[in-house]
Fold:
Amino acid sequence: MTETPTGDANANDNLDSGSAIGRRRDLAQSKGSQAYQQRRREIALAAGNVFYERGYADTTISDIAKGLETDRATLYYYFTNKQEIFDAVVSELAEADVTYAEQVQASAEPSLTKLRQLVTGLMNSYGEHYPLLYVYVRENLAAVGDERTVWSEQMRTVNRRYDTAVTAVVQEGLDDGTIRPLASARVLAFGIIGMVGWTNRWFAPDRSAEDAETIGAAYADMVVQGLATRPTTGAG
Structure:
């Protein structure tokens, strides 16, 4: 699922706590006001468009400031560098997706219903948080700089948890006979995840003929009807 190399020529494009703006930022973060945190989130989500267009490695703080029609000083009041802009919100979104997948996997619903929920849930998340999660899909977690090693390991763990949840749902269907044994649970699960993830190549909410909900429902039908041992209805 990872495609874009992340050798980062702009890794030092940051402002540490020793500067006046850095001290103001640290003070604001220590207070943790709701308005300040909300603005951080808004900036990070908006910056996703810049990361998506330029690629994470080639994006600088100046690029983000220009894309958001603001200045570098404003960004530095909220973030130390571009890594912090990207990592904080992506971690939150990815964790929300994996938590949802684990909840679906642990539910008492039939396995095919769970698969439908997983496919539609992931596609809806891509659409709702476009394009930031697509930038993450393209990020090569094995090639990050030393300053992002801890974050990279955390996100690999999140990825493994998601893969495990989907694989467990497929295995459940194989075990109870509702899913055809076309391949191992792992192969089928990775195929499902990859199919939805590949939409990063062509889906854009403002340009695509279908919205994320419609695409998710169609993909869910493809998965469920393709894997079911017996014909199914839209309910899965």
User: Anything to note?
Assistant: The CA atoms of residues 119 and 220 lie 6 Å apart. Residues 86-227 form a domain with the Tetracycline Repressor; domain 2 fold (CATH 1.10.357.10).
